[in-house]
Amino acid sequence: MPRIPGVPTARASRLLRLVYRFTRRRYGAVPEPITVVAHHPRLLLASGVHELLVERAARVLPRNVAELAVYRTAVRLNCSWCIDFGTMLQKHAGLDIDRLKHIDDYADSPLFTRQERLALAYADAMTDTPVGVTDEQVTELEGEFGRDGLVELTYLVALENSRGRMNSALGITDQGFTSGDACRVPVPSDRQTVTEVSA
């Protein structure tokens, strides 16, 4: 249970019901962070538009590199919701999710390519407190992905830091997006029951 309950469908505005319907169709269930942020409708709308724009704009990096860097950031922040959701996204993209079990060993593992290892190390350095990015890392990443690719990678890791820290602060934990044939996601109801929605 999050530290504050999500907005129940029964008390949702017409616009919020549309948001819930859209996300349910897209992901198989309504993600709990959306139901919690729904307490502030303007921020929900702003963040939703932002997420869709970032998704459309972030097309420079190879998908595997971008997804792994975001996933690694979630792991470093110990955001179980982000880890669960990120695993689902990689699975739906046809990426190898079995190797995610070895993400902590990426530096020496043959399961990860050179490009992936560079991005993963950068995600680690960006997520450190204080940030531990070096000039050498930036130069190497720019050489590998170009300046636009470097900016995209930086933006995606920074965005995941924001998501993960917010979810952790509000007590939002994994929702079961990778639990099998169905997603067990607490879509708020007046009784706060857990509903099962086919993925």
TrEMBL record:
Which InterPro entries does the entry link to?
Answer: AhpD-like (IPR029032)
Top-rank taxon, per record: Bacteria
| PANTHER family given in the database record | 4-CARBOXYMUCONOLACTONE DECARBOXYLASE FAMILY PROTEIN (AFU_ORTHOLOGUE AFUA_6G11590) (PTHR34846), CYTOPLASMIC PROTEIN (PTHR34846:SF10)
Q: What is this protein called?
A: Carboxymuconolactone decarboxylase family protein
Organism in which the protein naturally occurs? Saccharomonospora cyanea NA-134
- What taxonomic lineage is listed for the species of origin? Bacteria, Bacillati, Actinomycetota, Actinomycetes, Pseudonocardiales
